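Customer escalation, tier 2.

The customer says the design service returned an amino acid string that "doesn't look like it belongs to this structure." They asked us to rerun it and document both sides in this ticket. The original structure tokens are below, unchanged.
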């Protein structure tokens, strides 16, 4: 067999080549482990930042819910305040009428009529509208039929002949259905 120190055809030279590459492989492994350690540290710090952001966001949302809940309760408590303040002059007028009950009947009636008009104007400014029920067709969405009576004429059949209680809208929303009598 032919042997050469430089080249070993039977695998002898392969040892020397592997021996030279081993320190590089070890160094590569160490570098990879260092990279993994750095990545783990980076991942840990990113995770910590994300947890912090999550906790802050959760706390902020919780504070928002509490604040809106308090505001809603405050709004409900004071919702009628504006209306009551506007109605106080009407209450004062009724007190004045009661104090002058002994006055003549015509001035008493006039006082009641003026207070009624004032009350009606205040409620209309707040969005209250009276429902029209004079000889209109019965609509179960708007009206509540109390009774049916024979219609005086054929054209009034199925129409509202009288109302027992007026119906009202508040800002285009029905707040009370009209109680009516229908012609049959």
């Amino acid at each position: 067999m032919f042997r050469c120190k430089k080249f070993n055809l039977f695998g002898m030279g392969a040892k020397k080549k592997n021996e030279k590459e081993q320190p590089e492989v070890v160094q590569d492994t160490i570098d990879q482990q260092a990279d993994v350690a750095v990545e783990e540290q980076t991942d840990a710090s990113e995770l910590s930042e994300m947890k912090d952001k999550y906790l802050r966001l959760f706390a902020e949302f919780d504070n928002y819910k509490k604040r809106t809940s308090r505001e809603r309760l405050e709004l409900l408590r004071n919702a009628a305040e504006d209306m009551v303040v506007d109605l106080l002059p009407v209450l004062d007028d009724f007190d004045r009428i009661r104090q002058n009950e002994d006055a003549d009947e015509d001035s008493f009636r006039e006082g009641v009529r003026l207070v009624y008009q004032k009350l009606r104007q205040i409620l209309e400014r707040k969005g209250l509208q009276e429902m029209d029920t004079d000889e209109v067709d019965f609509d179960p969405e708007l009206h509540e039929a109390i009774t049916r009576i024979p219609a005086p004429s054929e054209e009034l059949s199925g129409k509202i002949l009288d109302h027992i209680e007026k119906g009202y809208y508040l800002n285009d929303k029905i707040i009370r259905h009209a109680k009516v009598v229908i012609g049959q």
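Tier 2 assessment: The sequence is consistent with the input. The first helix runs from residue 12 to 78. The mean pLDDT is 82. Sent an explanation to the customer and offered a walkthrough call.
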